[in-house]
Protein: Magnesium or manganese-dependent protein phosphatase
Organism: Streptomyces albus
Amino acid sequence: MENKDAEGDPSRADLAHEASARIGNSLDIVRTAQDLVDLLVPALGDMAVVQLADSVLAGDEPPLTYREGRLRMRQVAVKNTHGPWPRRLVQPGRRLPPIPDRPEFDVAVQSGSALTYSPEDAAALLGHDPALVAALVPEDLRQSLGTPLFARGIALGYVLVFRTRDPRSFAEADIRLLGELATRTALAVDNARRFTREHRTAVTLQHSLLPPTSTDTAAAETAGAYLAADGAVSVGGDWFDALPLSSLRIALVMGDVIGHGLQAAATMARLRTAVLTLSDLDLSPEEVLIRLDDLVQRIAAEAENPDVVGASCLYAVYDPVTRVCRMASAGHPPPVVVFPDRTLRCVPLAPGPVLGVGGMPFAVTEVRLPPGSVLALYTDGLTGLGGNEQDLLDHLATACRSGHGLAEMGRDLVRMAPGAPDPADDVTVLLARTRAVPAEHTAVWTLSGDPAGVSRAREAVCRRLADWGLHALAPATELIVSELVTNAIRHGSDPTATGIRLRLIRDRVLVCEVSDGSNTQPRLREAGTTDENGRGLFLVARLCTRWGSRYGTRGKTIWTEQPIEGVGGS
């Protein structure tokens, strides 16, 4: 190995200036490496390569040593002033063959020293292995200059410049210049590596938190589609959900957290978890958004920069019995309805403020959806900022004409987004094709507050179950109805004035509802051995698979679900 001291090219200052303008402008590791070799050839040599550790390309830190085969390297960027890269050499993107352990090479890499190599030096470093020499050393090599890409105490890879037809030896000025360029490039590569790791982590987090892309319930068939933003932009905080509610209803949720990166993904996770919890409480759409607004304000209070914390959200609840969808928006774009006759209409929804503003109400909009309608929820990445409504309708019409299922329609839509397949912002779509419960599969009775109404309710329920061929469910349903109606009479607010409503819904499960004018929350408790009361809800819970309560504009509803699969007549 030898270091030569000769006069360098007088354009070195221009090269250093060009490097400061070009290197580091991209968060793409390969692009950054290619920028370096493009600068080095032909300014410093005929050929140049950048070799990086595989782990760096994945966003991880490389091993601390080159020895014992711990570091697998890959040919990332190449440049040849005399034409295409020679086929006998390792091609771009390919992994380098294992290199023999050489203590002096490992020491040089870890120290960050630049070294010049004669052909004999290169062959010796490769153990005089003909296959290695042929794969890594250019023919007619006169001299090479190499230096590690060292950043923040970590060796990320190596850069080599080859002179094959240039008879000059590398001067000290050449060595210093390559060291400067390598240092600048290493920092840029490490920044890109860190971004790659953060982006990968955020994408993994986001994907792990998104629900299954398709669901199939009595209320609707749903399908979601997601397209991440261009890799140069960190992942955003888009999310969607299709949540089964009581009485066969379904909640459709679409949200978009302000900002990108891990913080946005973490905020999205907290909001989605909150929505899951609030949906179990069966709150109305406006009440859900009010609770989420409070949560975002608390998140902003904890953040270092509260001005960049916020989110938009659309929460819709569809009831397959009434065929009505109630929705409210916190700064989110209104959904689009594709009716069964293929006509399209944007829902005339008045969005409230984005989550985190506080103190503002959220208006509820109702829309009737015939069976087979498709409700499309989306984030603004689908239309782009300032995107017009007609473009969205045209894209939806095109997707519907394809005749594909919902899942493929969703994928078609995200592929139509501005900038796809590498959009500037995440694109998220949730499609729901609505269903309806036939009128003959429901039964409703209005009961007085008279205790004698309990027996009449049991008799009416048994007759209806017989009509439906669900004789096997009659004993359990009788007991459920008896307990719930009795509780409504005893604990309701003047049931003789407000009345008690009993409803049965038959679908994949048998739903039993009892509604009264009281806002008292029922509580399941274990009665003592000498207690005369307190066992009703315990018995109800044992007889059904799910039960709960929800509040309405007036009073509450207690509901239960019993499976009917395998029951005669189902």
Remarks:
- Confidence is low (pLDDT under 50) at residues 1-8, 528-532.
- The domain at 439-563 is CATH 3.30.565.10 (Heat Shock Protein 90).
- Residues 119 and 524 are 84 Å apart (CA to CA).
- The two ends are 86 Å apart (CA to CA).
